[in-house]
Design brief:
With about 280 residues, this protein is of the alpha+beta class. The protein folds into 2 domains: about 90 residues, no CATH class; about 150 residues, Rossmann fold (3-Layer(aba) Sandwich), CATH 3.40.50. About 40% of the residues lie in helices and about 15% in strands. The protein is built from 9 helices and 8 strands. The strands form 3 sheets. Strands 1-2-8-5 form a 4-stranded mixed sheet.
Length: about 280
Protein backbone atom coordinates (compact mmCIF):
# COMPACT_ATOMS: atom_id res chain seq x y z
CA UNK A 1 0.00 0.00 0.00
CA UNK A 2 2.88 2.38 0.74
CA UNK A 3 4.32 1.84 -2.74
CA UNK A 4 0.94 2.46 -4.33
CA UNK A 5 0.65 5.66 -2.29
CA UNK A 6 4.12 6.68 -3.50
CA UNK A 7 3.11 6.16 -7.15
CA UNK A 8 -0.14 8.07 -6.59
CA UNK A 9 1.69 11.00 -4.99
CA UNK A 10 4.25 11.21 -7.79
CA UNK A 11 1.53 11.14 -10.46
CA UNK A 12 -0.31 13.91 -8.61
CA UNK A 13 2.77 16.12 -8.98
CA UNK A 14 2.61 15.91 -12.78
CA UNK A 15 1.61 19.32 -14.11
CA UNK A 16 0.52 18.33 -17.61
CA UNK A 17 -3.12 17.24 -17.16
CA UNK A 18 -3.11 14.89 -20.16
CA UNK A 19 0.04 13.14 -18.95
CA UNK A 20 -1.35 12.92 -15.43
CA UNK A 21 -4.59 11.37 -16.72
CA UNK A 22 -2.55 8.87 -18.76
CA UNK A 23 -0.58 7.83 -15.67
CA UNK A 24 -3.73 7.59 -13.52
CA UNK A 25 -5.30 5.29 -16.12
CA UNK A 26 -2.27 3.03 -15.79
CA UNK A 27 -2.41 3.29 -12.01
CA UNK A 28 -6.08 2.33 -11.99
CA UNK A 29 -5.33 -0.72 -14.11
CA UNK A 30 -2.81 -2.21 -11.66
CA UNK A 31 -4.82 -1.79 -8.45
CA UNK A 32 -6.41 -5.25 -8.45
CA UNK A 33 -3.18 -7.05 -9.32
CA UNK A 34 -1.39 -5.17 -6.55
CA UNK A 35 -4.02 -5.96 -3.92
CA UNK A 36 -5.56 -9.10 -2.42
CA UNK A 37 -8.62 -8.72 -4.66
CA UNK A 38 -9.54 -12.22 -5.86
CA UNK A 39 -8.16 -12.53 -9.39
CA UNK A 40 -10.79 -12.41 -12.16
CA UNK A 41 -13.55 -11.82 -9.62
CA UNK A 42 -16.19 -9.23 -10.54
CA UNK A 43 -17.09 -8.79 -6.89
CA UNK A 44 -14.91 -7.32 -4.10
CA UNK A 45 -13.72 -10.65 -2.72
CA UNK A 46 -10.44 -10.89 -0.81
CA UNK A 47 -7.95 -13.68 -1.47
CA UNK A 48 -5.74 -13.97 1.60
CA UNK A 49 -3.50 -16.51 -0.12
CA UNK A 50 -2.80 -14.22 -3.07
CA UNK A 51 0.64 -12.66 -3.43
CA UNK A 52 0.06 -9.15 -4.81
CA UNK A 53 2.22 -7.94 -7.68
CA UNK A 54 5.06 -5.53 -6.88
CA UNK A 55 3.49 -2.08 -7.56
CA UNK A 56 6.39 -0.15 -9.09
CA UNK A 57 7.43 -2.89 -11.53
CA UNK A 58 3.80 -3.55 -12.42
CA UNK A 59 3.11 0.15 -12.98
CA UNK A 60 6.13 0.59 -15.25
CA UNK A 61 5.15 -2.49 -17.26
CA UNK A 62 1.60 -1.17 -17.62
CA UNK A 63 2.75 2.28 -18.76
CA UNK A 64 5.12 0.78 -21.34
CA UNK A 65 2.27 -1.32 -22.73
CA UNK A 66 0.01 1.74 -22.93
CA UNK A 67 2.74 3.74 -24.68
CA UNK A 68 3.08 1.02 -27.32
CA UNK A 69 -0.69 0.99 -27.78
CA UNK A 70 -0.82 4.77 -28.12
CA UNK A 71 1.99 4.67 -30.68
CA UNK A 72 0.07 2.13 -32.77
CA UNK A 73 -3.09 4.22 -32.55
CA UNK A 74 -1.17 7.35 -33.59
CA UNK A 75 0.23 5.53 -36.62
CA UNK A 76 -3.21 4.25 -37.62
CA UNK A 77 -4.83 7.68 -37.27
CA UNK A 78 -2.00 9.20 -39.31
CA UNK A 79 -2.45 6.63 -42.08
CA UNK A 80 -6.20 7.25 -42.21
CA UNK A 81 -5.84 11.03 -42.00
CA UNK A 82 -7.88 11.27 -38.79
CA UNK A 83 -5.35 12.98 -36.51
CA UNK A 84 -7.03 16.36 -36.80
CA UNK A 85 -10.56 15.10 -36.24
CA UNK A 86 -11.77 16.98 -33.12
CA UNK A 87 -12.81 14.98 -30.07
CA UNK A 88 -14.08 15.84 -26.62
CA UNK A 89 -14.45 13.46 -23.68
CA UNK A 90 -17.34 14.15 -21.31
CA UNK A 91 -17.84 12.11 -18.14
CA UNK A 92 -21.51 12.36 -17.25
CA UNK A 93 -24.79 10.53 -16.69
CA UNK A 94 -26.15 9.05 -19.95
CA UNK A 95 -29.58 10.31 -18.90
CA UNK A 96 -28.40 13.94 -18.82
CA UNK A 97 -25.85 14.64 -21.55
CA UNK A 98 -24.82 18.29 -22.12
CA UNK A 99 -25.47 18.22 -25.87
CA UNK A 100 -27.84 20.31 -28.00
CA UNK A 101 -31.09 18.92 -29.37
CA UNK A 102 -30.95 17.36 -32.84
CA UNK A 103 -27.16 17.65 -33.04
CA UNK A 104 -25.82 14.07 -33.09
CA UNK A 105 -25.45 11.83 -36.16
CA UNK A 106 -24.44 8.56 -34.49
CA UNK A 107 -24.54 7.01 -31.02
CA UNK A 108 -22.71 3.73 -30.29
CA UNK A 109 -23.03 2.13 -26.86
CA UNK A 110 -23.00 -1.10 -24.89
CA UNK A 111 -25.14 -0.47 -21.81
CA UNK A 112 -24.90 -2.26 -18.45
CA UNK A 113 -26.71 -5.55 -17.94
CA UNK A 114 -29.67 -5.83 -15.61
CA UNK A 115 -28.55 -9.12 -14.02
CA UNK A 116 -24.84 -8.48 -14.11
CA UNK A 117 -22.45 -7.66 -11.27
CA UNK A 118 -22.51 -4.31 -9.51
CA UNK A 119 -20.38 -1.97 -11.61
CA UNK A 120 -19.71 0.25 -8.62
CA UNK A 121 -18.23 -2.71 -6.73
CA UNK A 122 -16.14 -3.68 -9.74
CA UNK A 123 -14.56 -0.20 -9.83
CA UNK A 124 -14.43 0.55 -6.11
CA UNK A 125 -10.62 0.44 -5.81
CA UNK A 126 -10.28 3.08 -8.53
CA UNK A 127 -13.16 5.12 -7.12
CA UNK A 128 -11.59 5.25 -3.65
CA UNK A 129 -7.97 5.78 -4.71
CA UNK A 130 -8.80 8.51 -7.23
CA UNK A 131 -11.34 10.02 -4.84
CA UNK A 132 -14.36 9.78 -7.10
CA UNK A 133 -16.26 9.04 -3.93
CA UNK A 134 -15.84 8.69 -0.18
CA UNK A 135 -19.16 6.92 0.26
CA UNK A 136 -19.50 3.64 -1.64
CA UNK A 137 -23.20 3.42 -0.80
CA UNK A 138 -23.88 6.74 -2.52
CA UNK A 139 -21.52 5.80 -5.37
CA UNK A 140 -23.51 2.63 -6.09
CA UNK A 141 -26.77 4.57 -6.42
CA UNK A 142 -25.40 6.52 -9.40
CA UNK A 143 -25.21 3.43 -11.61
CA UNK A 144 -27.94 2.29 -13.99
CA UNK A 145 -29.18 -1.16 -13.09
CA UNK A 146 -27.91 -1.11 -9.51
CA UNK A 147 -29.85 -3.00 -6.84
CA UNK A 148 -29.02 -0.35 -4.23
CA UNK A 149 -31.98 1.90 -4.80
CA UNK A 150 -35.67 1.29 -5.19
CA UNK A 151 -37.44 3.92 -7.26
CA UNK A 152 -41.19 4.30 -7.54
CA UNK A 153 -43.34 5.68 -10.38
CA UNK A 154 -41.42 3.69 -12.98
CA UNK A 155 -42.11 4.04 -16.71
CA UNK A 156 -41.24 0.85 -18.56
CA UNK A 157 -42.65 1.96 -21.93
CA UNK A 158 -42.73 -1.66 -23.11
CA UNK A 159 -45.37 -4.38 -23.03
CA UNK A 160 -42.59 -6.98 -23.10
CA UNK A 161 -40.98 -5.39 -20.04
CA UNK A 162 -44.34 -5.36 -18.24
CA UNK A 163 -44.77 -9.08 -18.92
CA UNK A 164 -41.25 -9.82 -17.64
CA UNK A 165 -42.06 -7.85 -14.49
CA UNK A 166 -45.26 -9.87 -13.93
CA UNK A 167 -43.41 -13.18 -14.35
CA UNK A 168 -40.70 -12.10 -11.91
CA UNK A 169 -43.23 -10.91 -9.33
CA UNK A 170 -44.46 -14.50 -9.11
CA UNK A 171 -40.89 -15.65 -8.35
CA UNK A 172 -39.24 -12.84 -6.38
CA UNK A 173 -40.56 -9.33 -5.70
CA UNK A 174 -37.14 -7.78 -5.06
CA UNK A 175 -35.76 -9.05 -8.36
CA UNK A 176 -38.88 -7.84 -10.17
CA UNK A 177 -38.36 -4.33 -8.77
CA UNK A 178 -34.67 -4.31 -9.70
CA UNK A 179 -35.39 -5.36 -13.29
CA UNK A 180 -38.22 -2.83 -13.55
CA UNK A 181 -35.94 -0.07 -12.30
CA UNK A 182 -33.33 -1.05 -14.87
CA UNK A 183 -35.76 -0.97 -17.80
CA UNK A 184 -37.19 2.35 -16.60
CA UNK A 185 -33.74 3.92 -16.33
CA UNK A 186 -32.74 2.62 -19.76
CA UNK A 187 -35.91 4.18 -21.15
CA UNK A 188 -34.67 7.51 -19.74
CA UNK A 189 -31.40 6.96 -21.61
CA UNK A 190 -33.31 6.33 -24.84
CA UNK A 191 -35.36 9.51 -24.35
CA UNK A 192 -32.06 11.40 -24.11
CA UNK A 193 -30.76 9.63 -27.23
CA UNK A 194 -33.83 10.70 -29.19
CA UNK A 195 -33.42 14.29 -28.02
CA UNK A 196 -29.81 14.45 -29.21
CA UNK A 197 -30.13 12.65 -32.54
CA UNK A 198 -30.60 14.52 -35.78
CA UNK A 199 -33.39 13.43 -38.09
CA UNK A 200 -31.97 10.39 -39.87
CA UNK A 201 -29.37 9.92 -37.13
CA UNK A 202 -28.76 6.41 -35.83
CA UNK A 203 -28.05 4.74 -32.50
CA UNK A 204 -26.28 1.37 -32.31
CA UNK A 205 -26.83 -0.56 -29.08
CA UNK A 206 -24.99 -3.79 -28.26
CA UNK A 207 -26.89 -5.94 -25.78
CA UNK A 208 -27.46 -9.60 -24.89
CA UNK A 209 -30.41 -11.47 -23.41
CA UNK A 210 -30.19 -13.57 -20.28
CA UNK A 211 -32.41 -15.17 -17.63
CA UNK A 212 -33.05 -14.57 -13.95
CA UNK A 213 -35.03 -16.68 -11.49
CA UNK A 214 -36.00 -18.87 -14.44
CA UNK A 215 -37.47 -15.91 -16.35
CA UNK A 216 -36.12 -14.89 -19.75
CA UNK A 217 -34.87 -11.29 -19.61
CA UNK A 218 -35.33 -10.16 -23.21
CA UNK A 219 -33.19 -7.03 -23.11
CA UNK A 220 -32.89 -6.70 -26.90
CA UNK A 221 -36.63 -7.03 -27.46
CA UNK A 222 -37.48 -4.61 -24.64
CA UNK A 223 -34.99 -2.00 -25.88
CA UNK A 224 -36.30 -2.26 -29.43
CA UNK A 225 -39.90 -1.82 -28.27
CA UNK A 226 -38.99 1.12 -26.01
CA UNK A 227 -37.16 2.88 -28.83
CA UNK A 228 -39.99 2.25 -31.28
CA UNK A 229 -42.50 3.62 -28.78
CA UNK A 230 -40.35 6.75 -28.57
CA UNK A 231 -40.63 7.19 -32.32
CA UNK A 232 -37.43 5.60 -33.63
CA UNK A 233 -37.58 2.98 -36.37
CA UNK A 234 -35.57 -0.19 -36.91
CA UNK A 235 -32.75 0.29 -39.43
CA UNK A 236 -31.25 -3.15 -38.79
CA UNK A 237 -30.85 -5.77 -36.06
CA UNK A 238 -27.74 -7.94 -36.15
CA UNK A 239 -27.48 -11.13 -34.12
CA UNK A 240 -23.99 -12.53 -33.63
CA UNK A 241 -21.99 -14.96 -31.56
CA UNK A 242 -20.24 -13.21 -28.69
CA UNK A 243 -16.48 -12.92 -29.28
CA UNK A 244 -14.05 -14.08 -26.60
CA UNK A 245 -14.31 -11.83 -23.56
CA UNK A 246 -12.68 -11.81 -20.17
CA UNK A 247 -15.99 -12.61 -18.51
CA UNK A 248 -17.48 -15.73 -16.92
CA UNK A 249 -19.62 -17.56 -19.49
CA UNK A 250 -22.05 -19.26 -17.11
CA UNK A 251 -24.52 -18.00 -14.53
CA UNK A 252 -26.32 -19.61 -11.59
CA UNK A 253 -29.89 -20.14 -12.81
CA UNK A 254 -31.38 -19.57 -9.34
CA UNK A 255 -29.44 -16.49 -8.21
CA UNK A 256 -28.63 -14.98 -11.60
CA UNK A 257 -25.02 -14.41 -10.51
CA UNK A 258 -21.95 -15.42 -12.50
CA UNK A 259 -20.63 -18.79 -11.34
CA UNK A 260 -18.13 -21.55 -12.04
CA UNK A 261 -18.49 -24.32 -14.60
CA UNK A 262 -18.90 -26.92 -11.83
CA UNK A 263 -22.08 -25.34 -10.44
CA UNK A 264 -24.97 -27.78 -11.00
CA UNK A 265 -27.35 -24.83 -11.50
CA UNK A 266 -25.20 -23.24 -14.20
CA UNK A 267 -26.69 -21.98 -17.47
CA UNK A 268 -25.01 -20.39 -20.48
CA UNK A 269 -25.07 -16.60 -20.41
CA UNK A 270 -24.98 -14.19 -23.35
CA UNK A 271 -24.17 -16.92 -25.96
CA UNK A 272 -25.21 -14.37 -28.58
CA UNK A 273 -25.62 -10.63 -28.58
CA UNK A 274 -27.63 -8.19 -30.62
CA UNK A 275 -26.66 -4.95 -32.32
CA UNK A 276 -29.78 -2.81 -32.45
CA UNK A 277 -29.49 -0.12 -35.13
CA UNK A 278 -32.32 2.36 -34.71
CA UNK A 279 -32.98 5.51 -36.73
CA UNK A 280 -34.70 8.74 -35.78
Amino acid sequence: KRKLAFIFTEISKTKDQDVQDFFFCGFSNILKNCSIWLQKSNKPTRDFEKKPSEPIKTFLKQIKMMLRGNARLFELLSEKGYLKVPSKVICTDARKIPTKDNSVSLIVTSPPYVTSYEYADLHQLTALWLEYTKDLSDFRKRFIGTSYHNKKDLTLNSTIAENIRKELLEKDKKTAEEVSTYFSEMNQVFIEMKRMLKKGGKTCIVIGNTSLKGVEILNAEVFTEQLQNLGLKIADIIKREIPSKNLPSVRDEKTGRFTGINNKNKVSVYPTEYILIMEK
